[in-house]
Amino acid sequence: MRPGPPGLFVRSIAELPVGLPRGTFAPGVVATVAALMGASRLSQCVAVDQLGDLASLSTSLESVIRCQREAPSALTAPHHRGPVAQPA
Asked: How far, rounded to the nearest angstrom, does the alpha carbon of residue 26 sit from its chain's CA centroid?
């Protein structure tokens, strides 16, 4: 959302890059949930609280469960943003 006329916001919609996994949350959020619940072995309820503390995300328990389901596909292959500059 970006500011629009006084007191209003305008919703901007853009196409996602080809190959970027489509899901409820950005891959970084899904990866954070996977790390909290995988490596850190936190419960789903604690993961909801940690997302609020770490990223100021107001999420529900169902959202965390959905991120868990999306994690394998979102984390399988890294998204390449474009050509990498070659040293001269």
From this structure: 3
Q: Smallest Cα–Cα separation from 47: which of 66, 21, 26? A: 66
Q: Give the Å distances, CA to CA, from 73 to 77, 78, 85.
A: 8, 10, 28
The kind and range of the H/E element at 3 are: strand 2-3
Summarize pLDDT for 3-27 with one digit per residue, the tens.
Answer: 666 767 666 677 767 766 666 787 7
Q: At what angle do helices 44-55 and 27-37 cross, to 10 degrees?
A: 130
Cα–Cα distance list, 87 to 50, 83, 84 (Å):
41, 12, 9
Cα distances (Å, whole numbers) of residue 77 to 27, 46, 69: 11, 27, 16
Asked if pLDDT for residue 1 goes beyond 60, the answer is no
Closest by CA to 32, choosing from 61, 8, 57, 7, is 57
